[in-house]
Design goal:
Radius of gyration: 19 Å
Largest sheet: none
Helix content: 55-70%
Structural class: mainly alpha
CATH superfamily: Cytochrome c-like domain
Number of strands: 0
CATH class: Mainly Alpha
Distance between the termini: 62 Å
Order of helices and strands: HHHHHH
Number of helices: 6
Number of domains: 1
CATH architecture: Orthogonal Bundle
CATH topology: Cytochrome Bc1 Complex, Chain D, domain 2
């Protein structure tokens, strides 16, 4: 039994070190993702939807201002799971974890519904 424990303890660090997986920040920072993005695959939300999340008709980015948190989460989830959708947003949504989706949604709805 001791041999198995030592072997397990020796293998885990090697396995972790051999993978080039970047550790995710926990908890995800919705403001940082929305304003600055998260890696090359996830640009800042404001880069398409605008600083006030009012959208950009020229690029096809809709306004997020009137959306509720459940609606935004549903939209992100639907984009991520629709494998036939090859839009820019679908690709971005696939790179966001569920926790990141929730953090971004919370931030955007907080900002867009402040004072309601």
């Amino acid at each position: 039994m001791r041999y198995r424990t030592l072997l397990f303890a020796a293998i885990i660090p090697v396995q972790i070190a051999s993978h080039s997986v970047r550790a995710a920040v926990w908890p995800p920072d919705g403001k940082a993702i929305a304003e600055h993005g998260s890696g090359a695959e996830v640009p800042a939300c404001v880069s398409c939807h605008g600083r006030n999340f009012g959208g950009n008709p020229g690029s096809g980015a809709p306004s997020l201002r009137a959306k509720s948190a459940p609606d935004l989460m549903d939209d992100l989830y639907a984009e991520a799971i629709n494998t036939k959708n090859h839009s820019k947003m679908a690709g971005i949504a696939r790179y966001l974890s569920m926790a990141q989706k929730a953090a971004v949604t919370a931030y955007i709805t907080h900002i867009t519904h402040a004072g309601d």
